[in-house]
From TrEMBL:
GO terms assigned for molecular function: acyltransferase activity, transferring groups other than amino-acyl groups
Source domain of life: Bacteria
Matching Pfam families: Acetyltransf_10 (PF13673)
Gene3D superfamilies per UniProt: 3.40.630.30
Protein name in UniProt: GNAT family N-acetyltransferase
Keywords attached to this entry: Acyltransferase, Transferase
InterPro entries named in the record: Acyl_CoA_acyltransferase, Bact_Acetyltransf, GNAT_dom
Length: 141
């Protein structure tokens, strides 16, 4: 395996790679309806891409209010700390922008992953696109 790198992405320029990853993870694997996956917030969000070598394998976005979302890593690269590196990069970017609080809606099965990164569950369980989620918050020191 090559080294994993994370870089900021441009929604216009990197759209096809971001879409390919999110369509694979959310629409194909998790049966999220396309109309729920794509929203107007993509145009105002900061996007990130994770690469193995030159191949994009993961993505996430950061909204101006500190919400992190659309975190996705292609199946063959899960369990290799790609998501960890991706979220740490997003948190670092948020903190540099003065966003001391980061929020996200996590799929319930992923809560322990986010807890290891400093997030705390702040809601009961709810369904989003038919998938159980909880809201989580992380406050920077």
């Amino acid at each position: 395996m090559n080294e994993i790198t994370i870089r900021p992405a441009d929604w216009s320029k990197d759209n096809s790679e971001i879409r390919r990853i999110r369509e694979s993870v959310f629409i194909a694997e998790q049966s999220v309806p396309p109309e729920l996956e794509w929203d107007a917030e993509d145009a105002v969000a900061d996007h990130f891409l994770a690469y193995e070598g030159d191949y994009p394998i993961g993505t996430a976005r950061l909204l101006p209010d500190g919400h992190i979302g659309r975190v996705s890593v292609l199946k063959d690269w899960r369990g290799l700390k790609v998501g960890d590196q991706l979220i740490r990069t997003v948190i670092e970017t948020a903190e540099k922008r003065g966003l001391r609080q980061q929020m996200l809606s996590a799929q319930v099965h992923a809560t322990s992953f986010y807890e290891k990164l400093g997030f705390t569950v702040v809601s009961g369980e709810f369904l989003d696109a038919g998938i159980p989620h909880v809201d989580m918050v992380r406050v920077s020191e």
